[in-house]
Design a protein that fits this description.
Helix 4 packs across helix 7 (180-204) and helix 5 crosses helix 7 (180-204). The protein has helices at 2-14, 17-29, 32-38, 79-95, 108-122, 126-129, 180-204, 211-214, 284-289, 350-360; strands at 69-71, 98-102, 141-144, 159-166, 221-228, 238-243, 249-254, 260-264, 267-270, 278-282, 299-302, 309-316, 329-330, 348-349. Helix 4 (79-95) links the parallel strand 1 and strand 2. The chain is globular and about 55 Å long. The protein is α+β, with helices and mostly antiparallel strands.
Length: 373
């Protein structure tokens, strides 16, 4: 951990002084990438330059190379169908780490309005928008551009509007009026769906349906509304660099633009938008506690010259106790390990894991590597 931080400090020190100034000026503007577009830039600043990119949008049509789409209809009143769904989810989590769900119980009109609510937030007057701009992690409602802008990694072409749902929910008055009602409604419905997904994942692991929820995997819930403006030089940057998610699961709502890709069998494959569907992906912590049975895979978002692209990511992850500064210890579940299948990861705290994740930034490396036995 200490060595990793030292390397990052060295990397940041070697970051050219011009780029340091550029990164600070960008962050100090509090207007995000949207502000650059509003100013009429035709060339993207150097801090966004990613270097040589393999951005071929794979159009493979073979169903074996498509992220599974799973229909959740009748999972509560048709036992046979529920067994089928659990099998489909189990397979998807082992082979892909990603799947999409349809007939999940959240009305399409709610999904569409949430996309529009995020759009309205990001497209409001910049002087109003930047009042929310902060890097204070203690605030429950935030607006920022890039999680770790000074990690030495290239800056991503996106802005984010975030709010906590659990265990410490946002207060309604903290959300701007122009998207308040839909944020409240969507956060409640996606939270309930998260519980359902955890039930199905538990059964897919051969555990009691309530196991993962009782293990506090669903205790924390944070939502980010991402905004990817059209980029004048999309081949030079990324909307989101290659990374895995630092949580148990992520539920993602994406609009019609596309750009999300997953790394599967050493190929970047598109996760095509399906109207009314939600994308589910396994996070690092679920890979850890399942001892690698369910996989957290690399994914990224391409920059586009059209848009904006809008997505809403719901992250389910426990969080350190804000008062005691402690957090629950997680490691490979005893029910899933044996002499023949020994633990491959250490027992770690959420605080330890998240500190490492945020320090390293989206550098394309697995966050679990330092915690392997």
């Amino acid at each position: 951990m200490v060595e990793k931080k030292s390397n990052q400090l060295e990397e940041f020190t070697n970051f050219s002084s011009e780029k340091v100034v550029e990164a600070k000026a960008f962050d100090d503007s509090k207007e995000g990438v949207r502000g650059l577009v509003e100013s009429g830039v035709s060339k993207i600043p150097r801090i966004f330059h990613t270097g040589k990119l393999d951005i071929n949008e794979n159009s493979v049509r073979d169903v074996k190379l498509s992220v599974p789409i799973i229909d959740l209809k009748d999972i509560y009143n048709n036992p046979a169908r529920r067994v089928e769904v659990i099998g489909e989810i189990q397979s998807a989590c082992q082979e892909w780490g990603f799947f999409q769900v349809i007939n999940h119980g959240i009305p399409v009109i709610v999904l569409d309005e949430m996309i529009e609510g995020v759009r309205r937030f990001h497209e409001q007057d910049p002087d109003v928008r930047k009042e929310f701009y902060t890097r204070d992690s203690n605030k429950n409602v935030t607006y920022f551009s890039n999680l770790s802008p000074f990690s030495g990694q290239p800056t991503n072409w996106r802005d984010s509007f975030g709010f906590g749902v659990a265990p410490d929910p946002f207060k309604p008055e903290e959300i701007p009026l122009l998207c308040r009602d839909i944020v409240i409604e969507y956060s409640q419905k996606i939270n309930d769906l998260g519980f359902t997904i955890f039930e199905l994942l538990s059964e897919g692991l051969g555990l009691n349906p309530s196991y993962l929820k009782e293990f506090n995997c669903a205790e924390g819930h944070y939502i980010l509304g991402h905004y990817y403006p059209p980029c004048p030089e999309p081949k030079l940057t990324l909307g989101a660099s290659s990374h895995t998610d630092a949580d148990f699961i992520t539920l993602l709502l994406q609009d019609h633009i596309g750009g999300l890709q997953v790394l599967h069998e050493d190929k970047w494959l598109n996760v095509p938008p399906v109207h009314g569907a939600l994308v589910v992906n396994i996070g690092d912590l679920l890979q850890l506690i399942t001892n690698g049975r369910f996989v957290s895979v690399y994914h990224r978002v391409l920059a586009k010259d059209i848009g904006p692209r809008i997505s809403v990511a719901s992250f389910f992850v426990n969080s350190p106790d804000p008062i005691k500064g402690e957090s629950k210890v997680y490691g490979p579940l005893k029910e899933l390990t044996s002499k023949e299948n020994p633990p491959i990861y250490k027992d770690i705290t959420i605080k330890e894991f998240l500190n490492h994740y945020y320090a390293k930034g989206l550098d394309g490396n697995s966050s679990l590597e330092p915690f392997k036995l």
